[in-house]
Structure formats: C-alpha cells, structure tokens
Amino acid sequence: MINSVTYFLDKIVGNYKGGFVIAYHQISENRFIEHQQLFEKLEAIPLIELLKRNKNGLNTKGLYSITIDDAYENTIEPLTQNLKVPITIFVQTDYIKGIIPDFVKFYIYQDLSNLDIVKNEYFNKFSIAIDNFFSELKLILYSQKTSQFNKFCEHYADFLKTNNFISDESMKNFLPSIGPLLISKLSKNELISFESHGKSHQPVSALTKDELSHELKSSINEILQLTGKVSKIFCYPYGQQISIGNIAPELVSLLFEFAVTMNPGRIKSSNPYLIPRIPFFEKDYKLRALAKISTLFYKQNGY
Ligand SMILES: [Zn+2]
User: Fold this and answer.
1) How many CB atoms lie within 10 A of CB 261?
2) What predicted TM-score, i.e. pTM, was given to this entire model?
3) I want to staple 207 with a disulfide (CB 3.0 to 4.6 A). Which of 128, 191, 212, 281 is the partner?
4) How many A from CA of 8 to the centre of ligand 1?
5) Residue 217, Cβ neighbours under 10 Å: how many?
6) From ligand 1's centre to the CA of 255, what distance in Å?
C-alpha cells in the first residue's frame, strides 16, 4: 500500500525534478531492504545510466539510483550478500589500504569525549569547551587539509594515546573500510560499480591544482587495477559547498563524466559536475524516507 503512495508522490515530484540519487553511508541491511520495498514501484538503475539519460535530456521520472559512500565493511559486506538492485560504491583508495581518514579520527575523538574521565582529565583540566572544540574541528575537517586537522587536535590525540584510550590498532578497527581483495571480487558482480571518492578524502577545496590532479589520477588508476574498469564518476569528499569550492569542478570535469555532491535534491537540470543526491540514514524509516523523496523544495547547498 505505502509503495503505491510512494509511486504516486514520486510521479508528481518527478514531473518537475526528474529522478533521484540516494546517498547512503552506514546502513543496516534491514533498513536498506525496507527502503527497497518502499520504492518497489519505481525503477533502480545504475548511476551512470541515470546520469547519462539526464544529460541527454531524456525523462528520468520514476527512476532512481543507489550510491554508498566510503565503503564501510559493516555496510558493504551484509548488503552485497543478496543484492537485487544496482549500487554504486564510492571508494577512497587510501582508506581501503587501512589508512584512517580524518573523519574516522573525528568520530573516535568525539566518542571518547563523552567519557567522564576524558571530560575531567582533559577538557576541564585545560579549560576547553567540548562543543566549541568539536565544532571548530568539524569546520577544519570539512574545509582544510589533513595537516591542519592533525595540528588542531594534536594535543588531544596525544593525551588519548598516552592514556591508552586509543592505539593505532583500535583506531584501525573502529570503522574499517572493505579491502582491495573484496573490491576485486565484488567488481565481478554486474550489479555493483566502484567509482572514485578520491585518495585521501581531504576536501578538494583545500587542495592545489596539482594535489587534486594527483588525488584524482591515482584513485582512477587504483580502481582500474582492482576492477578492470575506468571510474567515470567522482564523489566529492564531504560533498558540501565549503568542501568543494569553486575551482575543483572544472578540474574534475577533465577526468570524469560526472561528479556527485551532498547537496540535497533531484537531478533534473543539474550541472553534471555538481549532481545533487538525497541522503538516507538509518533513522529514515518508511515515512521519513517517503517525505525525503516527495519534497519539491530542497534548497541548493542548504543541508
Ligand atoms: Zn566520504
């Protein structure tokens, strides 16, 4: 019944705004299946096909594509066991080798700040306001290089290490990505495409042209080696305007056919190098998911 409501609402919004792209990060298999049931009367097609249709001015109403960023082991492994719909997985080529990206460090540092002993022995002791510390760190995460990120939290990271709250091993195991072997294996499944999420997951707005060019080319090469396919779609790390900047899309357009963001919205009339997506999280149970795909009023860059 609810899938008929979805179909009806999608038809109306699709008339104006075309199809849509779902952006997952961490998602359980159950919630993923629930979303699939909700969209049963729509058609999931590979991302590249959807974007090409849109670029060629063809109708994309009733169509959607599924993307998953960052390739977390806890999401990709269960989801790909009984996959029935096409998915695109955006991988960072450093992360798949076990190099921890800054955003994972951010989660760990923030998680540990909830412990009373860390609150008292670090934040209170040094008179640092926890909320300010993490909002500033988040801004750096989204807009600056790894070197700046590490510099800002070096003292705190040292405290956590010295007091055995973290180790290299525990950080690696906190939220691992799938590895190269599984990527090679999964790339043989016709329903799964691997595309580029860069190398280091630094915001592209913070990189020089040479640095960005290196990021893009090395990720294309590594994905080619693992899957035998050339990546045609780039996914901007963090996907926000502040992380993308104004210069990167032009450079990205020299190496990729399309690039996706985290700007919420549907794809009709969008720049091929700034494709919007609709983010879906674990908390998006049926009605929330339905509301998300039914709105005509996403603000560009406003999420
Ligand atoms: Zn990411």
Assistant:
1) 26
2) 0.94
3) 212
4) 32
5) 13
6) 19
Kindly give the residue spans of alpha helices, DSSP state H, lying in 23-167: 29-38, 47-55, 73-79, 102-112, 116-118, 130-143, 146-162
Residue 273 and residue 217: Cα distance in Å, rounded? 17
Q: What are phi and psi of 7, to 5 degrees?
A: -60, -45
Q: Which domains, ranges and CATH numbers included, belong to the chain?
A: 2-98+177-294 (3.20.20.370), 102-174 (no CATH)
Tell me, in angstroms, the distance from the centre of ligand 1 to residue 17's CA. 25
CA of residue 201 to ligand 1 center, whole Å: 7
DSSP 192: E
Separation of CA 6 and ligand 1 centre (Å)? 28
Q: Residues within 5 Å of ion ligand 1 by Cβ?
A: 69-70
What pLDDT digit, counting tens, does each position of 95-135 carry? Answer: 999 999 999 999 999 999 999 999 999 999 999 999 999 99
What does the angle CA 251 – CA 264 – CA 192 come to, to the nearest 5 degrees?
A: 70
